[in-house]
Design brief:
The chain is an alpha+beta fold and 934 residues long. Among the domains are: 37-243, tricorn interacting facor f3 domain (Immunoglobulin-like, Sandwich), CATH 2.60.40.1730; 245-352, Neutral Protease, domain 2, CATH 1.10.390.10; 354-496, Neutral Protease Domain 2 (Neutral Protease, domain 2, Orthogonal Bundle), CATH 1.10.390.10. The strands form nine sheets. An eight-stranded mixed β-sheet has the order 5-4-7-2-1-10-13-12, with no helix packed on it. A five-stranded mixed β-sheet has the order 15-16-17-19-18, with helices on one face. α5 packs parallel to α12 (609-624). The relative contact order is 0.08.
Length: 934
């Protein structure tokens, strides 16, 4: 026994090493705008009265098909006397432009026929007589516009009904700057006004807008619906739909969709009402009290965003709203509830109170993302979304925010359409929500809730900047933290990045805490000297309290280090309890081993599942960034062989995914390693749902099966193939379909592919359609790779779904990376036409290139860029960034991948990295005794 303990001691004390996570999101920082994209603020709109008549049917005049007639009366009030009138207009053709003083409606002045600037969309009218300050005027326009198929402005969409007829509809997507394509407007969020909308459509169709219909009149085959005046709001949240949809409606709340999808609207209808009420209670402002007394949620066949927060008429992709009990996975059902919560949270954060400009998009999106998780959790607790937030949001954004390709949450350099698009990235959403959650834990839940109530009531129907929020927040920050408030707010919203906090136990009772900005890449141009004001939490083996999330202290930029004296000697310490702060944690080597010992004891030493996920994520990334050795990280990560829970495994798979990509075609040894590492979780979870499963067990099963099957576990593959073989007679259990379908495609024949593809063509459940489409991309046979690529390029796949389908084709199997790149190069023009432009293709090329692993592939990219860059216009910079990424990845692999390969080699040949049964037993025995030996 003594020799076993000695052996175990040696095994535990080896400083072995680790790996790293997700590929970074590309966020190309655009240069400052040369043009002025912003309107002057001398004039404010008061009310828009807009009438529209779309032409969508075969029976409409051919020359008018897919156009609309428009008329707009815009009431304005100059704040100063001025002869200059500026507003936005895009792709509108005018037959009448005039204005008059509201007090003299019969005295009309014709506006000159000025065209908008073709870059900024700004129309500048120089008037012969000045508009007088504080007097109201009415602008009158008659015009026509086009209903394009690009999913912006007032656009057209279509679907095929159960009788195989093509049905057309009109819908809107105005965020960020597309209302100007439906009516002339002051198309910026700060210009709030009320709206009176009138829609005329064929009698076979129904119309919907933000508010209720107040009256309808019929004229021949056409019906005109006039809508109630909206609350005071921004142009981008105006919406209207003209369609043959049906609705599930109780008089106040409704869900609208294709008639044949009526049954699939029930879940969203039920959960939507619950979430809307719960949010109203939380904010102490009931939704129906805010000036709009109805709510519709609409499922749109073609929709560029996931969903959109139009006040009173939320619009969604079909898969984000429609649920079928027999075909929708639990994770897809959760996604529906979460997206509903996100969009409904916008009724308060975005619609009632709106960011002044897109520089502060996080004031809208950060709160919507926060309540997407915590609002859903209050109603659908069983999803455990409060726990999922950490791996989905915090850990997902950290990679992007640790490179030069990031931007501050509050970014003053936001002008061009490209800038606006950039602000709708994971910094505004994930980091915004993470920052808000961090402040909540500093403030306490009750103070946090009351602060939001005051902020919303103080600024309702207006626009805000971050300082408006911070002023309210400071009133609710506990007294002992007041002096840190400004530093906390500014360092995480005005600066980029986040720190790694090092916890150094210099003695068993002395803790020294220090910070440094965490950077993932060496020498990429990012500023490594930034420092932050950081709330610090930690617990130890003595205290072992992972529920105490109130900060114990703050570290500030003025502190070189902070020393804490612990009341008792400790054998381990874990910082950032439940990952409540936005920072990584590093330890001295002995402390890392102390955590390792604890993880190998019963119940993982009592270390919270969120903190186990944090340890895993931090190890992968600290090693990837050379903050610690890979040997040390991989040694501690060996504990995963005992792990059966979702959150740590999600963090692990994100980390392994990066390394698998870097391995390219050399995954044989990794396959042996990952099959062994996941074996306990695989046996624990099994293949089918159990009555005792939690939601996270169900999700973990899907992940474990996916990785086990992908990397050659024979039992997994055989069972998946058996399920797929019987597909026509017995549906695959819904929550393992992704693993079964993907495995069947990876291991299958063309007949198997055709079987699943035919199911895709006939499937009527949107969530299942999406799952099948992405599973088809798991094919590995070169003939099937080409076949699916050309299906994606064809009209068989909607434009909104093409990018995800393509991604599955090159991300599910490393072998496909170069063949898919070749297919893109060979079919460049057709793909650009299919996806709506070369900018979309540039993103595809960048994403594929991020998976290149050889110099030959690098040269292939360079040759492609040289030959084709002229076609890409402004998106050529994305191609240049792709070359830079490939070089960085090849350099990284040359310096660091060898350690991981060596570890895998030893593992598969039974060397020191392999965790034999004897060694595993020894380590567990040692861990039990660790606190007595250390």
């Amino acid at each position: 026994m003594k020799s076993m303990i000695v052996a175990a001691t040696l095994a535990v004390c080896l400083c072995l090493s680790a790996a790293a996570p997700l590929t970074e999101e590309n966020a190309n920082i655009a240069p400052a705008a040369e043009e002025n994209y912003r309107l002057i603020t001398d004039i404010e709109p008061i009310n828009y009265n807009v009438s529209l008549k779309p032409y969508l049917l075969d029976s409409d005049p051919s020359e008018k098909r897919f156009t609309f007639d428009g008329e707009a009366y815009i009431t304005i009030k100059p704040k100063v006397t001025t002869s200059t009138l500026v507003l936005h207009s895009k792709n509108l053709k005018y037959s009448l432009r005039e204005f008059y003083a509201k007090s003299k409606p019969d005295v009309k002045t014709t506006l000159p026929a000025v065209e908008p600037n073709n870059v900024t969309d700004i129309v500048t009218y120089t008037l012969t007589s000045a508009l007088v300050a504080n007097q109201e005027y009415v602008l009158h326009f008659v015009y026509t516009g086009t209903m394009d198929d690009d999913m912006h402005g007032f656009y057209r969409s279509s679907y095929t009904d159960s009788k195989n007829n093509t049905k057309w509809l009109g819908s809107t997507q105005f965020q960020t700057n597309h209302a100007r394509r439906a009516f002339p407007s002051f198309d910026e969020p700060r210009f709030k006004a009320t709206f009176d909308i009138t829609l005329t459509s064929h009698k076979s169709m129904k119309t919907y807008s933000n508010t209720r219909i107040v009256n309808s009149t019929t004229n021949g085959d056409y019906v005109t619906d006039r809508y109630a005046t909206t609350p005071k709001m921004s142009t981008y949240i105006l919406a209207f739909i003209v369609s043959e949809f049906n609705e599930r409606f109780n008089g106040d709340f409704g869900v609208i969709a294709r008639p044949e999808f009526y049954k699939q609207t029930e879940y969203a209808f039920d959960v939507g009402q619950e979430i809307l009420k719960d949010l109203g209670d939380y904010f102490d402002i009931p939704y129906y009290s805010m000036g709009n007394d109805k709510m519709h949620m609409a499922a749109i066949p073609d929709f560029s965003a996931g969903a959109m927060e139009n006040w009173g008429l939320l619009t969604y992709r079909e898969r984000a709203l429609l649920y079928d009990e027999g075909s929708t996975t639990l994770s897809a059902q959760q996604y529906i509830a979460a997206v509903v919560a996100h969009e409904q949270a916008h009724m308060w954060f975005g619609d009632l109170v709106t960011c002044q400009w897109w520089s502060y998009t996080w004031l809208n999106e950060g709160f919507a993302r926060y309540f997407q998780y915590f609002g859903t959790h209050n109603v659908e607790t069983h999803y455990q979304m409060d726990q999922q937030f950490v791996v989905d949001q915090i850990q997902a954004v950290m990679n992007m925010d640790s490179t030069v390709n990031t931007n501050p949450m509050s970014d003053e350099n936001t002008n061009t359409p490209a800038d606006l698009s950039r602000m709708f990235n994971s910094i505004s959403y994930n980091k915004g929500g993470t920052f808000i959650r961090m402040v909540k834990y500093v403030m306490g839940e009750e103070n946090f809730k009351n602060s939001l109530r005051e902020y919303l009531k103080t600024h309702q129907y207006t626009n805000t900047v971050p300082s408006d929020l911070f002023t309210v927040w400071k009133k609710y920050i506990p007294a002992q933290f007041q002096s840190y408030a400004d530093g906390l707010f500014k360092s995480f919203t005005e600066q980029v990045g986040y720190p790694v906090i090092t916890f150094n136990l210099t003695t068993p009772t002395t803790l020294v805490i220090s910070q440094k900005r965490f950077l993932l890449k060496e020498g990429d141009g990012a500023d490594g000297n930034l420092l932050y004001t950081v709330p610090i939490t930690y617990t130890t083996n003595v205290e072992n309290n992972f529920n105490l999330t109130t900060p114990k202290l703050f570290v500030t930029p003025n502190d070189t280090s902070v020393e804490q004296t612990l009341p008792q000697a400790v054998s381990w310490i874990v910082g950032n309890v439940q990952e409540t702060g936005y920072y990584r944690v590093n330890y001295d080597v002995k402390s890392w081993h102390g955590i390792h010992h604890a993880l190998l004891t019963n119940n993982w030493g009592g270390i919270h599942e969120l903190n186990r996920a944090q340890v895993v994520d931090d190890l992968f990334n600290l090693a990837r960034a050379s903050v610690i050795d890979y040997d040390l990280a991989l040694d501690i990560l060996a504990y995963l062989k005992t792990e059966t829970n979702y959150l740590p495994w999600t963090a692990a798979f994100n980390g392994y995914n990066y390394l698998v990509i870097r391995l390219g075609l050399e995954t044989k040894n990794f396959a042996v390693y990952i099959r062994d590492m996941t074996s306990k979780a695989y046996d624990f979870l099994g293949f089918e749902d159990k009555p005792t499963d939690t939601t996270l067990d169900i999700y973990n099963r899907a992940k474990i099966l996916s990785w086990a099957c992908k990397f050659g576990k024979k039992e997994c593959i055989t069972k998946a193939q058996e399920y797929f073989k019987n597909l026509d007679n017995k549906p695959v259990p819904v929550n393992i379909r992704s693993a079964v379908y993907c495995t069947a495609m990876r291991e299958g024949t063309e007949a198997d592919f055709n079987k699943l593809y035919n199911k895709y063509l006939t499937e009527t459940v949107a969530t299942e359609v999406t799952l099948i489409l992405n599973s088809l991309g798991c094919v590995k046979d070169s003939k099937l790779v080409s076949k699916f690529f050309h299906i994606i390029v064809s009209d068989s796949v909607r434009r909104q779904d093409k990018s995800a389908a393509l991604s599955s084709l090159y991300s599910e199997n490393n072998e496909n990376v170069e063949p898919v790149f070749d297919l893109v190069a060979e079919n460049l023009d057709a793909l650009a036409n299919s996806m709506g432009g070369y900018s979309s293709v540039a993103s595809v090329i960048s994403n594929i290139a991020s998976r290149f692993t050889t110099a030959q592939q690098e040269n292939k990219l360079k040759n492609f860029n040289t030959q084709n860059r002229g076609k890409f216009g402004g998106s050529a910079s994305t191609l240049d960034s792709a070359e830079k990424t490939v070089k960085e990845n090849l350099d990284w692999a040359e310096k660091k991948l060898g350690t991981f390969k060596s570890h895998l080699e030893k593992y598969t040949t039974g060397g020191s990295a392999s965790l034999s049964g004897f060694t595993a037993l020894s380590m567990v025995l040692f861990a039990v005794l660790a606190r007595f030996l250390c």
